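Recap quiz, item 2
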Amino acid sequence: AQKITQTQPGMFVQEKEAVTLDCTYDTSDQSYGLFWYKQPSSGEMIFLIYQGSYDEQNATEGRYSLNFQKARKSANLVISASQLGDSAMYFCAMREGMFSGGYNKLIFGAGTRLAVHP
Amino acid sequence: SAVISQKPSRDICQRGTSLTIQCQVDSQVTMMFWYRQQPGQSLTLIATANQGSEATYESGFVIDKFPISRPNLTFSTLTVSNMSPEDSSIYLCSVMTGFDTEAFFGQGTRLTVV
């Protein structure tokens, strides 16, 4: 069963506008973590933001914020004031099994390719 | 945090040969992870490399094809054996330094099999 779902293969946004990248997840663990990574064409994986399942506040990191809706099992990434350099692939990932003796590994969604237009 | 050095950064290999990818971390970590990213695809976990024990492989990946070594807490290697063009991918090593922290990634190895 797919655990991380990113339904938007590609997204376009005008420079300086905000964009939301969708991510839904499926887990039976009570304790888990959600991550967003950016992968530019160079291939490196750049960490953007993290949300723990017990965190009551939505995570924010500069222009990035995570809209965490636990009951709906969604963890959407919001990028405010988009810049041309934001054009990249964006991956949502989940870590589960933190206290259940699991491997602490990350499971990734299919990704969303974001294009920022001037 | 952790800084990961991964070598080689890219390689072009003949089918039927093997390539060993090295991953060096600047601090001691318990678990290291190896991922494969096929062209245009997401990251798929190959295996978890634990120091002092056999690697744990995910479904669809076997030790004969992807042998892993983990001789100490800062180093690991992944070998892609008997390569075919279908093995052309980016291979990435990753570590997590704690339960509630980000995963750090190496720069990746872009492998092309011809």
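The two ends of chain B are 37 Å apart (CA to CA).
The mean pLDDT of chain B is 93.
End of item.
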